[in-house]
Amino acid sequence: MKTCRELYEELEYRENTPAKNWAGSMARVGRINQIKAEISQQIDVVKHKDAILKMLESSH
Predict the structure, then answer these.
(1) pLDDT tens column, 30-42
(2) Residue 2: helix, strand or coil by DSSP?
(3) CA-based nearest residue to 2, from 31, 27, 25
(4) Dihedral through CA 28, CA 16, CA 4, CA 40, nearest 10?
(5) Closest CA to 35 of 8, 16, 13, 17
(6) What is the DSSP string of 8-54?
(7) Taking residues 34-55, what's their average pLDDT?
(8) Nearest to 4, CA basis, from 44, 37, 42
(9) The total number of structural domains that make up the chain
(10) Pair 32, 11: CB distance under 8 Å
(11) pLDDT for 35
(12) With 90 as the cut, is the pLDDT of residue 45 above it?
C-alpha cells in the first residue's frame, strides 16, 4: 500500500500529464479518481479534526 505522500505525488503527476489519446484520457481520469479515493480512505478525519479545521480557516 502506498503512503499518502506517494499517492499525492502520483496524483500531481497524473493531473499534470496530458493523455495522448481518448482511451488514455479515460484511463487517466479513472486513475485520478482512484487515487483520490485511496487518499480519502487513509485520512482519519476524526483524528485530524483540529488540523483540518485550522487549514480550512486559514484558507479563507
Answers:
(1) 999 999 999 999 9
(2) coil
(3) 31
(4) -60
(5) 8
(6) HHHHHHHHHS--SSHHHHHHHHHHHHHHHHHHHHH--TTTTHHHHHH
(7) 92
(8) 42
(9) 1
(10) yes
(11) 97
(12) no
How far, in Å, are 22, 33, 45 from residue 8 at the CA level?
A: 24, 12, 17
Q: How far is residue 52 from each of residues 34, 49, 56, measured CA to CA in Å?
A: 22, 5, 6
Question: Does the pLDDT value for residue 52 go beyond 90?
Answer: no
Tens-place pLDDT, residues 8-22: 999 999 999 999 999
Structural contact between residues 39 and 11, judged by C-beta atoms closer than 8 angstroms: yes
Residue 20 burial (CB count, 10 A): 9
Domain range for 28 is 4-58
The three-state secondary structure class of 1 is coil
